[in-house]
Amino acid sequence: MFPRRLHCGLPLLLVALVCTAAHAFDRVTLRNGFSYDCSHREVLDNGRVRLYLSGGADAGYIDLPSAEIESVATLPDPPAAAAKTTVAANPDMQTLLSHAGAQHDIDVELLASIVHAESDGRAKAVSRTGAQGLMQLMPGTAQQMGVKDSFVPEQNINGGTAYLDALLTRYHDNLALALAAYNAGPAAVDKYHGIPPYRETRAYVARVMTEFKRRKLVAERAPAAAR
């Protein structure tokens, strides 16, 4: 049985993650130097371009003025052998992530992608703003999620996964908005009615979703490579 999030909702995300395994994705570079990796693009009637970060028509997209786009480059699919991931490299962490994912119906590869982006798998990581542990929980969030010690991997992962679960519920399983809120806080997402115009937050959303897509593509190809 697949987790309800990001598996059962094929129109929301899995079409882009798995069914496009033979289709390279695009890197859209803006005039300000920032870039997004997207599964496909759509030109809107208002002169803006919609970038589908997750591939679904109902989730995971960003609208930008076409004038902001400097260039578009097609990226090759990641090779199956390239993917030494945090989860695969750490069996104990894989077990923790799998347990937390099963408990909250969240794809383990999504959780692994967040851990990779947040701490690169370092249980003792501390950010400049005071976020702690594998999933970089702020002290207030950790307390809210019942985490007593953010540097204990099991507690941190359970708390971070519960927090992501709450955000996915709040934003109706819109992964891009949930990730933006995980990074910048729900107040910022609600204020701007979407992904806040913060360079760090937009980069974070793109980074996690690109890593998630990479992991799903590698997982999809692994059985074929083993034959």
Molecular structure report:
By secondary structure, the protein is an alpha+beta fold. It has a domain at about 85-190: Lysozyme (Orthogonal Bundle). The chain is about 50% helix and about 15% strand. Strand 3 (about 40-45) and strand 4 (about 50) form a beta hairpin. The longest helix is centred in the C-terminal third of the chain and has 28 residues, at about 200-225. The model is unreliable at about 5-25, about 55-60 and about 80-85 (pLDDT under 50).
Looking at this protein, list some descriptive labels.
three-stranded antiparallel beta sheet; 10 helices; globular; 6 strands; 13% strand; 227 residues; Lysozyme; alpha+beta
Short précis:
The chain has 227 residues and is an alpha+beta fold. The chain is built from ten helices and six strands; from the N terminus they run H-H-E-E-E-E-E-E-H-H-H-H-H-H-H-H.
